[in-house]
Amino acid sequence: MRKQIVAGNWKMNLDAKQSQELIEALKAQSLDSNVSVAIATPSVHLAAAVAQTQDSSIDVVAQNMHQATSGAYTGEVSATMLKSIGVNTVLLGHSERRAYFHETDAQLAEKVNTALDAGLNVIFCFGEELEERKSGSHFDVVSSQLSKALFHLKANQWDHIVLAYEPVWAIGTGETASPEQAQEIHAHIRAVLTAQYDAALAESISVLYGGSVKPSNAADIFSKPDVDGGLIGGASLNAEDFAAIVNAF
Ligand code: 13P
Question: Which atom of ligand 1 lies at the shortest distance from residue 170's CA?
Fold first, then answer.
């Protein structure tokens, strides 16, 4: 059985007090214990969030890290720093990092290596832009993103990888991929993994969907056989909405 996962990506939202309040509100919700629940907070809140979630099953995830292990990279955060404060997982490759901070597939391959070497798990984000969807190249785009950033990995390293397909046109737009569109591309992702590795590996990897997931559409999307959960932006900033999505399986 693949792990079912719902992860909130807070992006650059909430000050320290708001972060603390949202975590308290989340801890007060009853959350389906079959679902792994995670929140990706801004890095400045990570240590406090780790401490605050000690007595809960909520995992705290970083939104980014640098590919170098240490050094003269002013303003950056390393994988070992994350590990040292009790963070075990990092999001890599989010479309906002690719678009606004010019992260490339090659750089992401380095980040993935550094994260795994430090003992972090990776939630790897990828997905096509609107023009690519319209021109029908989305299958190729997704294959290429996976192959350039991840296909150098050995099969056993995939134990530490979760995939998050996030079509750029559905992020923060209110427009969601239909459950059928999500299923179609998630099945494609599994086929690509089967071709590169094998069916057993492909079947073992959790593939999350992200892009305008809300309490009203989560159950339909999560009902698809190749969708193993969601990466939630806006709706993760509200404890009731996020809990409703966790409980939508
Ligand atoms: P929204 O849920 O706000 O569309 O954001 C999705 C996302 O980017 C999660 O990483």
Answer: 4
The CA–CA distances, whole Å, from 140 to 107, 110, 143, 189, 204 equal 20, 22, 5, 10, 22
Rounded to the nearest whole angstrom, what is the distance from the C-alpha of residue 236 to the centroid of ligand 1?
9
pLDDT value at position 136? Answer: 95
Task: Break the chain into its structural domains and give their ranges.
Answer: 4-246
The Å distance, Cα 237 to ligand 1 centre, comes to 11
What phi, psi does 231 have (nearest 5°)? -110, 115
Q: Would you say the C-alpha torsion 133, 183, 215, 63 has a positive or negative sign?
A: negative
The two tokens of residue 157 are: 């390293």
Tell me: pLDDT of 154 over 90: yes
Q: Whose CA is closest to atom 5 on ligand 1?
A: 233
- What atom of ligand 1 comes closest to residue 210's alpha carbon? 6
Look at residue 217 and give its three-state secondary structure: helix
Query: Each residue of 196-241: pLDDT tens digit?
Result: 999 999 999 999 999 999 999 999 999 999 999 999 999 999 999 9
DSSP 69: S
163, 208 contact by CB (below 8 A): yes
- Does the CB atom of residue 145 touch ligand 1 within 6 A? no
4-246 belongs to CATH 3.20.20.70:
yes
Does the Cβ of 167 fall within 6 Å of ligand 1? Answer: no
CB 4, CB 226: distance < 8 Å? no
Active site residue ranges:
94, 166
Does 210 sit in the ligand 1 pocket, CB within 6 Å? yes
